[in-house]
Amino acid sequence: MTDAQVTIDVEPRERFSIAPDKLVSIIIPCYNQARFLGAAIESALQQDYQHFEVIVVDDGSTDHTWDVAARYPKVVAVRQQNQGVAAARNNGVRVSSGSYLVFLDSDDRLLPNALRVGMKQLLDHPECAFVFGCHRDIAADGTARSTHSFVGIEKDPYRQFLLYNCVYTPSTAMFRRDIFETETGFVSLFGGAEDYDLYLRIARKFPIFGYDEIVAEYRRHDTNKTGNNAQMLKACVSILREQKGYVRGNPDWEEAYQAGMSNWRRIWGERLVSQVWSRCKEG
């Protein structure tokens, strides 16, 4: 993982007396999302699985992100120069103590069952590097919008991730910490889709399991990174191109690679065209 300077403000808390093999670290990277951060933190603190720590990484915010994090005595607050969400997540891993990791985006929320269900699924599937559940959309004000369909994992997770990103939002996933000791972590080259790159690298080597239970809420608002269609198109295509050397010689993977390229160009290309057309109509 990329090195970065961080300033750490640690409040005395129970996490130091909890056995690491039972501890879940909830890592919340935040850049100028102070208006949503409190809700994210509170959703993390309201888990019905009690062995957890919450770490907020302020990625050089210019709003009052640091002040919001400081209101919560049970939160470990980390501050870094602005380096992006990948570096923020990686630095959160560095200062964390848990054997299990959840990456909660600062504008999203966990449901109270998220850690309990994730832990159960990892214990039930000891061969898996990570597990993930479902999410529902919420509006900017937090009201419910819709629930997304469950996407299960086939016996070849790498092939499936070549086709599309099965994990809609990182907040639905729980990772084993060991994975971050063997993998690079999140890479900053792929703005907006750093998680997809990580999933593909993990799926090449380890089993993954998806389960049909809602564990997180994805907030739709005017500053979502996934709203930048041009950036997302470039990132997803670049990530898939990184896989070209790995799929060569495997007919199933080669076919999935080509289909995945078509899928991403269609999905983000159509949205980009629609976005440009709307702006043209607005004058």
Q: Give the CA-based shape.
A: globular
CATH architectural group of the largest domain:
Alpha-Beta Complex
The arrangement of helices and strands along the chain is: EEHEHEHEEHEEHEHHEHHH
CATH superfamily of the largest domain: Spore Coat Polysaccharide Biosynthesis Protein SpsA, Chain A
Short description, anyone?
With 283 residues, the chain is α/β, with parallel strands linked by helices. The chain is 39% helix and 21% strand.
Which terms summarize this structure?
ten-stranded mixed sheet; alpha/beta; 283 residues; 10 strands; 10 helices; disordered N terminus; 2 domains; Spore Coat Polysaccharide Biosynthesis Protein SpsA, Chain A
Q: Can you give a write-up of this model?
A:
This protein has 2 domains: 6-227, Spore Coat Polysaccharide Biosynthesis Protein SpsA, Chain A; 228-283. Helix content is 39%, strand content 21%. The protein is built from 10 helices and 10 strands. It has helices at 34-45, 65-70, 85-95, 114-124, 157-163, 179-182, 194-203, 229-241, 244-247, 251-282; strands at 6-9, 24-30, 52-59, 75-80, 100-103, 109-110, 130-138, 144-147, 173-176, 208-219. Strands 1, 2, 3, 4, 5, 6, 7, 8, 9 and 10 form a 10-stranded mixed beta sheet that branches. Strand 2, helix 1 and strand 3 (52-59) form a beta-alpha-beta unit. Helix 8 (229-241) runs antiparallel to helix 10. It is globular and about 55 Å long. The protein starts with 5 loop residues before the first strand and ends with a helix. Mean pLDDT is 87; it is low at 1-17.
